[in-house]
Amino acid sequence: MEISALTRSVVKHNHAIIAPDGYINSNVPGWTGCTVNVIINEQMGARLAQTLITLREGGELKGQTQAAQIFFYVVEGQLQATVDGQEKTLTKGVYVYVPVEKTYLFQHPSEGTQVLTFHKVYEPLPGYETPGVLFGARDLAKAPIYMNDEALRIQELLPNELGFDMAVNIFTYDMGGHLPMVETHIMEHGLLYLEGQAIYVLDQQWYPVKKGDSIWMAPYCQQWATTMGKEPSVYIYYKNVNRFPTVL
Ligand code: UGY
Ligand code: MN
């Protein structure tokens, strides 16, 4: 018998591991026929939000972005998107970036469709245009080698332009792949493991993680990771970028 008093999830002041076993659903106005798990948000001390939505047949996500932009990524299944008048069928691995003050409607999902969202309050940059709606897809062919290590590949899903203040990347670690150093940086991360297993080291603590797990890393939370097991590990992650780093 499994012991329900155990979990791999942890919530600390500068990082969290959220495994699916502890999910409790939230009701979100305009998001119907679905379960919504709010995995990261400002209640934790984060400056982004991350949710995972699981839709039933007939489910719908309808709304309008306000001060925050939203990045939607299809983890499983498929559905129909209409964003600011642009229509597209989104299948597994396809995403849409919805800038501020735009309407969105996602409908006709296949049963069990899962959608990941990253939300960030947009910080305009004088002299640069607010980004427009952007569709794209996961593609390993668009993932260059990271830091001269053939075992590490990163695909940037949003353009590396100053108008954007957030990045969303897919990081693939082949067997034996690990971060080349312990990263210590001001940028914050939210992430979801899409494939495989790994060991993540956060603030000097070691955590086994796998497909379906999410992680929050606050600014300056020290981080290192290595893949584990017999298949590559892959995660999609958020990072705040391109803005003046201090109010001083
Ligand atoms: O972009 C990054 O900071 C990335 N290398 N960090 C991470 O995967 N934990
Ligand atoms: Mn990092």
From TrEMBL:
Asked whether the keyword Nuclease is assigned, the reply is: no
The answer on whether this UniProt entry bears the keyword Hydrolase reads yes
Task: Report the EC code(s) recorded for this entry.
Answer: 3.5.3.26
Identify which top EC class this enzyme belongs to: hydrolase
Domain Cupin type-2 span(s) in chain numbering: 53-111
What are the protein's UniProt keywords? Hydrolase
Q: Could you state a single Gene Ontology molecular function term?
A: ureidoglycine aminohydrolase activity
Stored NCBIfam families: ura-cupin
Stated name of the protein: (S)-ureidoglycine aminohydrolase
Per the UniProt entry, what species is this protein from, by scientific name? Hymenobacter cellulosivorans
